[in-house]
Design a protein that fits this description.
By secondary structure, the protein is α+β, with helices and mostly antiparallel strands. It is built from seven helices and five strands, in the order βααββαβααβαα. The strands form two sheets. The protein has a three-stranded antiparallel β-sheet. A hairpin with a 4-residue loop joins strand 2 and strand 3 (61-66).
């Protein structure tokens, strides 16, 4: 088995770089692979998504594994921004606590043991990107989480 790891924009994979040249020597129909990737990633439109293409060079059969988009990509989409703040003086955008919790629930590849831990990872990304949560600096919201102010929202 041969594995090709790529990152594509959801629903917009092409047979060009980097996928086509990697598939060519394996004798797999690149058009079929691209169509399958686009079908399985269309829900992540506008986001970069990690994809694994696993090919059996003998049979020319392939399987596709779609990873979870990076947390920053999901935050950008949910906050309606194109990129984070470079200087962090002015916020790049704002995210509701409900959306931050939703992102935490969706992160299957998180290192957090609990929803609270995963939410703190998401908020850490918000800090790095200069994204506020409910109009407050994400760093301040992290302190509130540690103080238990949002525990009721995490149980629901």
């Amino acid at each position: 088995m041969k594995t090709i790891d790529i990152i594509v924009e959801g629903g917009k994979a092409t047979a060009g770089q980097p996928l086509g040249p990697a598939l060519g020597p394996l004798g797999v129909n690149a058009g079929q692979v691209v169509a399958k990737i686009n079908e399985e990633t269309k829900a992540f439109s506008g986001m970069k998504v990690p994809v694994k293409v696993i090919v059996d060079p003998k049979t020319k059969q392939f399987t596709i594994e779609i990873g979870s988009p990076p947390t920053a990509e999901i935050i950008k989409k949910e906050a309606g921004i194109e990129k984070g703040a470079g200087n962090r003086e002015a916020p790049a955008g704002n995210l509701s606590m409900e959306k931050a919790i939703g992102i935490a629930k969706a992160k299957s590849n998180s290192l957090g043991k609990t929803l609270k831990d995963t939410l703190k990872e998401v908020l850490g990304s918000c800090v790095s990107m200069g994204v506020n949560v409910d109009g407050k600096k994400a760093k301040d919201v992290l302190k509130e989480i540690d103080e238990g102010k949002h525990d009721s929202q995490l149980k629901g």
